[in-house]
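Hello again,

I reread your note about wanting to compare the complex against the isolated chains. To keep things tidy I'm splitting this into two emails, and this first one only covers the full assembly. Below are the input lines as submitted, including protein chains and any nucleic acid or small-molecule components. They are followed by the predicted structure of everything together. The single-chain runs will come separately.
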Amino acid sequence: MRASYAQCATRRSLTLHVVRRRKRRTVNDLQAMQIAITAADRARLISRPNPWVGVVIVPQSGEIFDGSTSRVGGPHAEILAIRAAGKLTVGATIYTTLEPCDHTGRTGPCTQAIIDAGITRCVVGIVDPDEKVSGRGIARLREAGITVELGVLADQVTEQLAPYIHHRKTKRPFVVLKMATTLDGRTAAADGTSMWITGETARRRVQVLRAQSDAVVVGAGTVRADDPQLTVRDVEGDSPRRIVLGEISNEARINPCTQWTGSLVDLLDELGKQDVLQLLVEGGPTVAASFHREGLVNQYVLHLAPAFSGGNDGLGVFEGNGITTMSELWRGRIVSTQQLGDDLEIIIEPNLKAQENKE
Ligand code: AOF
Ligand code: ZN
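Full-complex prediction:
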């Protein structure tokens, strides 16, 4: 256990703790699953392309042990929590945000480890959508006489694992479109200048979004205008793989990168095959419009500065013509809002019900 802990810390210098032991206290199923969800967050930057899973073990003595997924090839969350609990697993309840795996991939099946540990009850957030698992883990535990309960805090886990679930269901990455705009919807002034609309806190937040993404994409126009690096600098985590739509010069600071000249749908298919779970689209307006109009965006992250351009010149969020009449309005639902320094972040996702009603 120590080895994998140290490995995480040295290989990526992230301050992550894969296992924790807490003092004795009484927790109910919801509270224990909430602790497992928090534990899963610790693996968000290291587990990909594996899902970031959290596990809690509560023995009859009432202590709480938790674990989260380690790096690819390393132990799954269940294994770390089982090791932490030691002999206390006999007769214990295990809480897993995602159904335990029942296959031998890069590591052995967690179901077998749970059975061998003498655990008698397993509370699961959601079924693993990966076709190698999808219910088999739960079935196997039940066959072994373990009581399995499914669906505890399932909505929260579904939201937490959205990129993983989307990837396993569609074989494409979860697409996050990030935009920084003035309150009157401008992303650049009439002379083309666009730095800096939002403040430092919002820009740090963008670095976190990059660290959470496996790949980032911009248009060749943005590379020519801004010469961005699109790396992770001021926060923990690895830089995403960089993709440019179109061709750029060898001198651009974004190099090394992939220059893509095919369709967006083909790009997503290709990235999906390469285990890219989350793709961050970092604009400009032409690229944003293409992803948006083709209905390829799964989540919009808007950073709104309390500023006005004061007119209808300059660049908007989306290049080109939008809807022609109100009944065609694209509608989203707000997932979260937060203030970032002087700016406001609004995260929205497509409102599928509103879209269906339109059709
Ligand atoms: C779990 N617990 O913490 C995670 C699971 O190649 P492997 O052996 O690492 O297996 C990868 C698959 O295991 C992955 O596609 C997903 O279905 C599951 N992830 N399962 O029991 C975990 N991360
Ligand atoms: Zn597993």
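For quick reference: The chain has two domains: 18-164, 171-358.

B.
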